[in-house]
Every structure is written in C-alpha cells, then in structure tokens.
Amino acid sequence: MGLQMTIEELEAFIAEVFPQVGGDFVVEDLGEMRIRVRLVTAEKHLRPGGTVSGPSMFALADVAVYMAVLAMIGPQALAVTTNCSIDFMRKPEAGKDLIAECRLLKLGRVLAVGEVLMVSDGGEAPVARASLTYSIPPR
Amino acid sequence: MGLQMTIEELEAFIAEVFPQVGGDFVVEDLGEMRIRVRLVTAEKHLRPGGTVSGPSMFALADVAVYMAVLAMIGPQALAVTTNCSIDFMRKPEAGKDLIAECRLLKLGRVLAVGEVLMVSDGGEAPVARASLTYSIPPR
Amino acid sequence: MGLQMTIEELEAFIAEVFPQVGGDFVVEDLGEMRIRVRLVTAEKHLRPGGTVSGPSMFALADVAVYMAVLAMIGPQALAVTTNCSIDFMRKPEAGKDLIAECRLLKLGRVLAVGEVLMVSDGGEAPVARASLTYSIPPR
Amino acid sequence: MGLQMTIEELEAFIAEVFPQVGGDFVVEDLGEMRIRVRLVTAEKHLRPGGTVSGPSMFALADVAVYMAVLAMIGPQALAVTTNCSIDFMRKPEAGKDLIAECRLLKLGRVLAVGEVLMVSDGGEAPVARASLTYSIPPR
Predict the structure, then answer these.
(1) What tens digit of pLDDT does each residue of B85-106 get?
(2) Where are the domains of chain D?
(3) Assigned architecture for domain C7-135
(4) Residues 91..120 of A with a Cβ closer than 8 Å to C: which?
(5) Interface pTM, i.e. ipTM
C-alpha cells in the first residue's frame, strides 16, 4: 500500500475542505504511514506570552493524523476523529512555529490510529504528544 | 471548601487573561466542583456543514475545567492543562451552541481532574466527552 | 432498544468466555445503557498495603463496559476494546471491594463508548474514572 | 542526569515492592529515559485463544514507565500512576511474550510522562500503545 496523494494534493484538499484553517498548516515531509506538518503560528493561535494555545496544538495533531490517513487512502472528507488523548509537557517557545511528527500505527478497514510528537521549531524537547483514532467510512 | 469566585468574576478573569476567546464562553451555572458553560458558536468555530469543529470542542472542555478549578481555588492564571482525553461521539447539530456540563472529580494540592459532557443546545445525546487534568502551581 | 440479556445471563457468559476472571466480578445492577459491577477483591488484585492495583481497576472498568454493551446487543464475544483512558485519583481503601458505575454514552453500529466511575465499597470519593471504546463486529 | 539504578537493582526493587508480579517482567535493555521490558506470558495473562489480555498489557505499560522513572530518580516506591491512555490495535500473537519499548518524554519535578509501544516477541506490527503520567512525590 503506497501513498495515494502528493504533498500538493493534500494541501489543496485541506484548503478546499477546511477553508478556515487550510493556510495554517504546511506539510514539510510525507512518507508511507508518516507525515511532518508545520503550524505556521499567527496571532489567533497564541496565548498571552506568545505561546501556542492548547486548542491550536490539538488542531495540529488532528490535522496531521488526518492528512497522514488521507495520503494513504486517498481524499475522503468523511474520515472523522473519534478519540484523542493529548499530553501537554512543556510550554512552547514564544514566537516559534510548532512542528508535528506523525506516525500511523494502524490503518485498518474501519479505524486508523496515529501518534504525534510536537516540538517548537528548532527545539528538541517535546512540547506535547497526542494519539488519535480516526473512523474511516466504508468505501 | 466553598466557591471563591462568582460567575461575573470568572468571566471577567477569563476575558482579561484570554482576550482572544473570552467572549466565546458564557457561564450558565456554577456550583461547588461543577460548572455549565456555553460555547456561543460563531463562524470561526465551524466546519463546512455548520457543525462545531473538534478544536472548538476541545477548547470548550478545556475552559470549562479551568473555570471550575478557578472558581474553587481563586484566580490563578498559572494552572495549566497537562492531559486531555476526548471522545467525539456524534456530529454536533448545525447552527446550535454547544453546552458543556463539567464536574471536578478531584481537586488536590497539585492536580485537579475534571470531566465534561457536551451536548448541542436543546439536545440530549452527548456530542463529546472529555476528561482533563490540570496542574496547580504552588501557592 | 431494550436489554437483551439478564444479569444471570451476563454473568454466565463472562464466566464461560473469561474463565480466569469470571468469578471476580458481580453485577449489582443493570439497566438500559448502564450497569453497576463489583470487583470482589482478592489477594491477586492487591498491592502491598492492601489497596487494589491499577491493572485490577483497568480490568474492572473494561469488564463493566463490555457487559453494558453485551446487555444491549446480546452475547458477542468478539467485541474488543480499542481504547481506554483512565485517571487514578485516590488510593482505594484497603480491604474494600471496588464498585464501578458504568454508563454507555454511545452505542453505534461499529463503536460503543462507555464511561466508568469507581469508588471503594461504601465510599463516596471517586478512586478512578475511565472511558473506553469498544469496536463491535459486524453482525 | 544519568541512570541511578542498574537493571539488576530495578528488578530486585520491583520484586520486593510488587511480589505478586515481580517475576513477570524482565528488563531487556535500559538507558537514560528509556527501557525495554518483556512480559513473560503465563497462563494468568492470557485470554481464551492464548492472546495476552488487556489488563496484562496495561500492567506491562505501567511497570515499564515506572521502572524507566525509577531508573532515573532512584528507588521511590511512592511514585504513582495518575493517568493512562492506551490504544489496542492488533491481537497479540498467541503463545508469544510481549515486548514493551518505553521512552520518557518528560521527567519533571512533580510529573513524568512516558510512552510505550508493545509488540509480540519477534513481531513488528504494534499490538498496543500507551502513554502514562506518573506523579513523583516530593523528596
């Protein structure tokens, strides 16, 4: 099972399906069962002090797994998140983008599971980790 | 241990600390170890089709537990979310606010745990549930 | 959609399917979309100091949701846990059984979600809470 | 911050503190912020069909993070699990041990976070993944 979409196709699909957020996320790398996504932080993602908010980190993890799944199964807007567990471990660095490394651990017929590690751009220490389950609609 | 803040004080504190989102959340009811919060849905919270987005549901759960904790310990901007587990169970109804019922299950010296059930305004079926842990700074 | 199994049928089914643990769990109450299950604590469930171990609490939550699902859909040994999030909030009381109150929040065609609150027998303060997702096999 | 305990010291400590389960777990590798632990599967860990049970997988993840934390901070029996999120992704292979690869993502003053990937011995596909938070007592 190989990649069904390119980075360009993924970004175009997200921009079309989620016009409000499409421009926030840039795919930096894509492979089978894995993706790296950058959150281009803007004012709306920040908390006082300039650090990325919890909901923005959730959104980054969510979109990263979504795109990793779509890249493998093709564009299916109807895949939906059913569960997310997220640990916030360190305060993100002020004024930095956030980078999500995502790996799919399972891509089944009806469920997909991905895990995501997030770091501030240029940093090493994990800011947050998340695992998400997506329900995949019957084809 | 009784309530340390009123609804008005809570909303004013949130508006001051999180100016970007303060107006999105309205406290509908407040008691010891529990709170009900309304997400006043606006365009920015929606996905195509008019339903509330996952990150907006996460934000509602997060702010509900935060306010329930603050109401009990007083205004401490430094309480931080360390973990959230959230299950998305049904699509929220288009064009409706989202109502979060939050209950604190633990309010310890260093950790607080709250759970949240979310329904579309006027509905009965749970749209999502979440449990969150907050780390409370030493006083 | 009403109950498909009685308490007696549930306990007999569990005893047959999970002979190693069947006798550990007693159904105390059963209704539509909810169940109360007692863990009859024995030496094997305990940690030094006489409190119930984490894995035993996990097992109680897991079996409670499993039985709540089976009671609604009928005996299907193949329903499997896909996800569990559990918060341990207080040390269980030594020498006490553990009581789990379980409620199903969703019972869909392919996924069921249940939440569980656990207290020491006779106590009020929650010892642990859990939410679990079960995948239901096609019929 | 280097390792404070050897594999032998860890196993001896676990055997003393948790006599019921001590022999079930073998440390296969230990490094700073990481550990590999084998669950030596016995009849008590199995479900019908010979696969490892959910509670046994939970126990393996829990003990792996516990030992990874102790190896870094020294023997402190009082570190307690506060949260675990676990995804069960594939049925473990019958008759095989289970191997847990654990990595600590955070080792703070009061909280530690670890993640664990579990595979059947000799296998590649992840059977389960877990993330756990431990609360560390003040020294």
Answers:
(1) 999 999 999 889 999 999 999 9
(2) 7-135
(3) Roll (3.10)
(4) 110-111
(5) 0.94
